[in-house]
Design brief:
Length: about 180
C-alpha cells in the first residue's frame, strides 16, 4: 500500500488514492495513509461476526461514497464473497506472494521451498471469485537461495512486490480505460 501511495505521488501516475480501507482498526497502513493526506477508514470485520455480506455491504458503501473507481488490495487478508467480487469485477486487483498459478493461498514461501523450487516471486492479478485465480496482470521472479527460510525469501520478495505492484496498477488502469472507451 505504501509503495502504491508513493507511486501515485507522481503526477504522471494514472491513479490517485482517495481512500485506504482496512478491516483491522490497528493496521499501520491507516496511519501511513493519513500521513500521506489520504482518507483512511477501518471497518472491523469482527463486529459483523459470521455475516460476511453485511461487512462487505458496509465496505462497498464506503468505497462508493468515496468515489473509488479501482480497488488495489494490499494486505487485505479476507476472502471476498462472490457478491462483492461481482460488484467490483474488472476494477479490483490483488498482489500475491507467489508465481501464480502456483501456491495459491497462504504459506507460499515455505511451500515453494518445500517443493524444491529454484525461484519464487509475486503476482498481481485481477480478483475473481476463486482465491488467487484471477487473470495475471504481471509477475516478478526472485531466486530461491540455498539455506532460504520462508522469512528470508519473504524479505527478498518484498522489494519485488513494491516495484511490481505500481507497474501492474498502471497496466490495470490502462486496461480499464480501454474497456470504458470501447463501450
Amino acid at each position: 500500500m505504501e509503495a502504491l501511495l508513493k507511486a501515485a505521488s507522481d503526477p504522471e501516475f494514472p491513479a490517485r488514492p482517495v481512500l485506504v480501507l482496512s478491516n483491522s482498526p490497528d493496521a499501520s497502513g491507516l496511519k501511513i495513509a493519513e500521513a500521506a493526506g489520504v482518507a483512511a477508514v477501518a471497518i472491523d470485520h469482527k463486529t459483523y461476526g459470521k455475516d460476511r455480506e453485511a461487512f462487505e455491504f458496509h465496505v462497498d458503501a464506503t468505497l462508493r461514497g468515496a468515489d473509488v473507481e479501482v480497488i488495489a488490495l494490499a494486505g487485505f487478508m479476507r476472502v471476498l464473497t462472490p457478491w462483492f467480487v461481482k460488484r467490483w469485477e474488472g476494477r479490483m486487483i490483488n498482489i500475491h506472494p507467489s508465481l501464480l498459478p502456483k501456491y495459491k493461498g497462504l504459506d507460499t514461501h515455505q511451500r515453494a521451498i518445500d517443493a524444491g523450487e529454484t525461484e519464487a516471486g509475486c503476482s498481481v492479478h485481477w480478483v475473481s471469485a476463486g482465491v488467487d485465480e484471477g487473470e495475471i496482470i504481471a509477475q516478478a521472479r526472485v531466486p530461491i537461495l540455498a539455506g532460504d527460510t520462508a522469512e528470508t525469501l519473504a524479505a527478498r520478495t518484498l522489494p519485488a512486490e513494491h516495484k511490481l505492484y505500481p507497474e501492474a496498477l498502471k497496466l490495470a488502469c490502462k486496461t480499464i480505460t480501454e474497456k470504458l472507451s470501447h463501450g
